Each structure stands twice: as C-alpha cells, then as structure tokens.
Amino acid sequence: MPDKYILKKDHLLPLLRKLKKTHRLIAPVRNRHGDTLFAGIDNLDEVRIDLENQPQNSLKQFFFPQQETLFTYSNPASDSYHFEPVVEESPPTLYFGVRSCDLSAVLYMDVVFLKNVKDPNYQRKRQNTILVGLNCNDPFANCFCNATRNGPFIDFGFDLQLTDLGDRFLVEYDRSRGQEIISDWRQFFAEADDQDVKAQYQAFLEARGKFRLQVHLDQAVKKLARDEVPESVWEELSMRCQDCGGCAYICPTCTCFSISDLQTTDHAGERIRSWDACTFSGFTRMAGGHNPVDRQMRGIEKRFRHKLQFDVKKDNRPSCVGCGRCVNICFGGTDIVRFINMTCCENI
Amino acid sequence: MPSSSQDLYQPKPAEIREVIEENSQIKTFDLSFVDREYNDGFSYEPGQFMMVSIPHCGEAPISVSSTPLNGGTIHLSVRRAGKLTEVMHEMKRGDVVGLRGPYGRPFPMASLSAKDLLFVAGGIGLAPLRSVINTCLAAGHERRITILYGSRTPSDIAFKEDLASWGQTKNVTCLLTVDRAEPGWEGEVGLVTALLAHCSLDPHETKALLCGPPMMIRAVLAQLADRGFADGDIITTMERHMKCGVGICRHCHMDDKLVCKDGPVFTLEELKQLKVMELQG
C-alpha cells in the first residue's frame, strides 16, 4: 500500500460524516463568540470546523480533565469505608485537526501517565482514540515549535496526518488505525503523485521560514544544564509572575495534579483530581506549614527547570512543544519565551 | 505495588487495632486491612510509606514504623501536624482508615547486614528508622548498633518501649538527649551531635542512617564528614508533600527526582547531586 494519498477538500466532510458513525468527533470549532476551541461535534452541518486559527485549548482536557472524580467514598470510619472507582464511558474518539505541537504534547502525556505506572483514568480516555494531525503551513504569531523541534511538520505519532495543499490535503499514515481508515474509505483517497509530494515539501520549506519569534531554546537548555542562568533572571521572573497559574493550565504538557476529598454528606464524598500548578506556593507546602521550596522565589524557576532541564536530562528532549499559548496568556511577561530570551541575552 | 492499573489510586479499608500514645504529638496506629486475605499477603520494606486516607481529609504519605518481620503488623506513627493528622489523632481502636501502598524505595537492607550501624534521629524521625532497627534486630544483626535519639523535652521522647528494649540489647548502644530538661531528667541535655562526638565509630565499617529536622541533619552530616564517612555510607529519608505516591503528580519533586519513586530513601551521595533544602544552610 502506498504511503501518501490525496484527499480532495470536497471529500473531507463526507469522510468525517462516515467516521463519525463509529467515533465521537473532536475538532477545532469556531464558536459564535469567535473563539476557536477543540470541541465535540454532534452535527457536522451545524458547526464550522476551523483549520485556520490555533485552537485556544489543547487536547489535554480530553485525556486529563481539569477536574475529575476518581472515586466516590462512603461510610467513612466504619468497616465498610469504601472507595468506588468512577468509571466514565470513553467511546472511540477521533481527534481531527491536531497540530504538531498538540500531537507532540499527547505523546508526552503518554509517557507521564502510561510509562512507569498506568494511570487508569488517562488510559481509559486515551485508548480507542484516533489522532488526525494537521501540519502547520502558517505558524501563528507566538509559535516556536521549530525551536522545540516538533514542528511545523511532524512525521510520527499520528494515525493520519494532513498537509494542506490548497484544494486538497496530502494524507500520510503512521499507525495501523490510520492505514485502516484509508483502506476502509478508499473511495475518498487517491494516490499522491510526485507533484503532490513536491508541493508538500515546498509547503514545509515555506512554513519553516514563517516563524516570527526567535527563540534560542537550545542555548537556554545548555545554560540550565550548566547552571549558568544568572540569579537576576530568576529574581525578575519571580517578581513579575502574578501567580495566576494560567501558563500551567493552558500548557498542553503541564500535567501536575492535586487530589482532594469533597465531602457531599456526613457519610459520603468524592475523591477529586484536579489540575495543579507548580508555581503555586501550596504545591510543596507540607502539613504544619513548612515549605521545602521558597515558592515565592523559586516557583517559576521549578517550572522552567522541569521543562527545559530535568525532562531533557531524562528523555533527551524538552517538554515544551512551542505552541506559544503561555506567551498569549501571560500578563506578567514571564512566559517561557521571555525566560529563554532573558537567559540568552541577559543584558537586554 | 498495586497489581493492576484499576486500583492505582484505590485505598483499601484498614482497621485500627490499637493506638499507642507516644507523646502529646505522636501516636502510633497499629493497622490491619479489613480484607483478611489481602492483609495476609501484604508486605513492605523498611523505609517505604503508605498513602493514608482519612475520611473527608484526603490522603497523606506516612512512613511505616514497624518491621515487616513481625508478621501482619503495620505501624504508622503520626505526628499531629495538619488537618488530616489532627483528625487521625481523634480516631480510636476499631475505626477504619484507607490505605494504599507500600510505595517508595526502601532502605538498602542487604548492604547493612555486614556493617556497624549508626542511627541518628530527632523527634518523629525515629519512626522510619525504628522499622530498620527492629528489622535488623529481628534478623539477628551481629555487628555493633549505635542509636542516638534527640527530643525537645523528656516528655517528647517517643517510642519509649523500643528505646528501653534496644538499651538492653547486647550489641546495641542507645543514647538519648533532650534540648530542654524537665524536673526529674537526669540524662543528657544538648544536641545529638554532642552524643555523636562521644561515640567511637569506624567510618569505613559503619553505615549511618539519619532522619530528623533539617537543622539536625545538617549538623550531623558536618560531623560525619569530619570523621571520614563516605557520602555513600550516609543514608537518610526525605519528607515531602505528595498526592499520588506513584511518580505522576510531581508534588514531591526534588530537581529531576521524585521523592515518592526515586526515594524517600537517598544516600548523601545522591542528595548532593540535587538542590535540597535540607542540605542548604
């Protein structure tokens, strides 16, 4: 079976309609407020799939919700103190229009939640998923996946990958499920010819030249590894960070979480897991108030070191995927790009 | 470790069989799983911890203070420190808590057996070391054992029964000290480092195990270094805020290490690779 196909743009909706019969469909949808968000699609005729703008959210919330109930518990303190797992149905789901950054983030989350121990809630949501990616022809204003080396085009990790060639998509597969889609719906796909492959390469070259931000990520990684980041950088960042946690929440690879009990009656409650942020002072505070980390000064440092130093040491690559969302959201001016560039141009 | 992913975070009910009041701040809870079959198959190693669920309070990591060689016993010694431990301190025999675990890297017991052992503990820090000491003694450790234990005041001395019994064991030297004396106290007053200064130790034949407040740890480390102890022969156990206990939530991070998974037991050699509050002045 050839490895590159053409899907005419006219055939996209009919294909999605077919796939939707067996899968829940999640794609970037432009809502009536003008926001583009990954969202579940009930009726393809009533929504506008938006492949032009960057979705404000990533896929994180679908595999690792902002808040989820792990257990309900009942009869505390008695013999029958019992924790009942809350098992939500996770129907087969197709994620469509996933850009390289968000796709890479899912692969990173797979490592966090499935590599050493298997997180049951993540695993349930992650299995039976199909990832249909979209190479980025036009990186957005704050994108820097060229620096994190997972974009603008990606050649692994997806089931199917689309490249926009104007009136048609070039389609590649990396996993058997993608291959199956092409075989099952062969009528929508034509074999790609040399011209198509050349056009894809041309699109890649053009996309690579369109990044507006200069982000010296490799240099920052080196400086962190050698412990050469000036203390003044950390001081300025901690002073300016407003402790809102927005960067961690919006980040597709920030996966730290908290677990707590929510009492619902005298005899019952729920054990809840929710997103947390390592920049918060409570993140490491122990019972009695002692905190082994000076969060005021070191919280934001811990976050950047995790992404650009400790994960590099462990997995040989940073866990920032260059999506630029933290740059968009940070009103303190302490996003990761600001940090990287402060580190590398300390006199500016 | 949990056997399947489904029960990764699922606590099992465990009944309090006895509550031992160690002092006004520390109680030891003797627990066994309500599920008898599970309890019979359950084991742990010294240095490991359990995630303890207290109704409506969530979970906290507590290190096991008993020896696994004393079949079926799970002792958790808990200092009254926050909301969860406050509620736990009100619990009585017959009450039920939730437990999952054991988690974490234990003390390297095999490497201890042919060595002299030095234990230095302050306050609740004796809890995890008690598990090691009683395991060594139950296994018939033949080499010299020195136990130095510091408390704030004589009424703060915990694990009195153990201390008395260790004091009567042939190859064990067990010395106590307090920060502040009270009427009737005829023992040492001062820091554990003063006790340590009087102990004759062969640094090349001794493993040192420490657990206690950071101030104590730093002072003891300085003295052990002066006396020629190698960093790899000094072992301690770290305490951190935790949520998952299994290496995912990252609350217990210490640089690139996670205390729940890579620790809580670390050698000084390992800790020196990290920026650790306990080692910084």
> Which assembly state applies to the chains in this document?
heterodimer
Helix content of chain A: 25-40%
Enumerate the strands of the largest sheet of chain B in spatial order, edge to edge or round the barrel: 10-9-8-7-11-12-15
| Count of structural domains of chain B | 2
Q: What is the top-level CATH class of the largest domain in chain B?
A: Alpha Beta
Q: What labels describe this entry?
A:
heterodimer, A: 348 residues, alpha+beta, nine-stranded mixed beta sheet, B: 281 residues, alpha/beta, Elongation Factor Tu (Ef-tu), domain 3, Rossmann fold, seven-stranded mixed beta sheet, six-stranded antiparallel beta sheet, 8 helices, 15 strands
Give a nutshell description of this structure.
Chain A has 348 residues and is α+β, with helices and mostly antiparallel strands. Chain A contains 13 helices and 13 strands.
Walk me through the topology.
The complex is a heterodimer of chains A (348) and B (281).
Chain A: E1 4-8, H1 12-20, E2 24-30, E3 36-41, E4 48-49, H2 60-63, E5 67-74, E6 82-85, E7 93-99, H3 100-114, H4 120-126, E8 129-134, H5 145-148, E9 160-164, E10 168-173, H6 176-184, E11 189-191, H7 194-208, H8 217-225, H9 231-240, H10 246-250, E12 257-265, E13 268-275, H11 295-315, H12 325-329, H13 336-344
Parallel strand pairs in A: 2-7, 7-8, 8-9
Antiparallel strand pairs in A: 1-10, 1-11, 2-3, 2-4, 5-6, 5-13, 9-10, 12-13
Helix pairs in contact in A: 8-11, 8-13, 9-11
Chain B: E1 12-21, E2 26-33, H1 36-41, E3 49-54, E4 58-63, E5 74-79, H2 83-89, E6 96-103, E7 116-122, H3 126-138, E8 145-151, H4 160-167, E9 172-178, E10 188-189, H5 192-197, E11 206-211, H6 214-226, E12 234-237, E13 253-254, E14 257-258, H7 259-262, E15 265-267, H8 268-271
Parallel strand pairs in B: 7-8, 7-11, 8-9, 9-10, 11-12
Antiparallel strand pairs in B: 1-2, 1-6, 2-5, 3-4, 3-6, 12-15, 13-14
Structural notes for this entry:
Chain A has 348 residues and is α+β, with helices and mostly antiparallel strands. Chain A is built from 13 helices and 13 strands. In chain A, the strands form 2 sheets. In chain A, strands 1, 2, 3, 4, 7, 8, 9, 10 and 11 form a 9-stranded mixed beta sheet that branches. A 4-stranded antiparallel beta sheet of chain A has the order 6-5-13-12, with no helix packed on it. The model of chain A has no long low-confidence stretch (mean pLDDT 93). Chain B has 281 residues and is α/β, with parallel strands linked by helices. Chain B has 2 domains: 5-103, Elongation Factor Tu (Ef-tu), domain 3, CATH 2.40.30; 109-237, Nucleotide-binding domain of ferredoxin-NADP reductase (FNR) module (Rossmann fold, 3-Layer(aba) Sandwich). Chain B is built from 8 helices and 15 strands. In chain B, the strands form 3 sheets. A 7-stranded mixed beta sheet of chain B has the order 10-9-8-7-11-12-15, sandwiched between helices. In chain B, strands 4-3-6-1-2-5 form a 6-stranded antiparallel beta sheet. Chain B has a two-stranded antiparallel ribbon with strand order 13-14. The interface between A and B is large, with 47 and 46 residues.
